[in-house]
Amino acid sequence: MNFLAHLFLAGPPHAAAYADRLVGQFVADAVPGRRLEAYAHAPGVQAGIRQHRAIDAFTDQHPVVRRATARLRLAGHGKYAGVVSDVFFDHFLARGFAVFSAEPLADFTRRVYAQLGARQAEFPARVQQFFPHLVQHDWLGHYAEVAGVARALAGLSRRAAPGSGLERGGAELLANYAAYEADFQAFFPELQAFAAAGYPGP
Fold it and tell me: Cα separation of 75 and 92, whole Å?
């Protein structure tokens, strides 16, 4: 899953160590392997990183997600099919946020930007570099628009290997919109239940 889903699945805001878990979910991709030990002083952040990894593993192995990525490989996205499906699923989460949360998307994004901003000094260097752009351009909120998805994938294409096809992701979403929406609707409630099973007690 991509940024919006991971931050949303960090847990209910009132939960124990929520702020730490939010940070862990956000920085996890920049904390590979044993670098988790760098957060030994912050077990809540470590828990968020571990949860992020568990969510990714659950997602990658799920048959509905595999169906979506197979469709994307046929569309020419190759090894980047998983990246594209992650962004597509963030789009459907943003677009239907009210179905999954009592907190409006705009309120959620403002709160999360503020909470993460207060902890920015703890981020790995490359996360510190792109975080201001994420906030300034409201990446999370703009996932609700197909144009926002297209911009996100075009940006990723500039950092990917030549021939990734990421810049064509917006067109693929429009071409098979109903199919990807059905994939998301079948998959996301199961992911939400999986993530909730790992939350700490109140």
Answer: 20
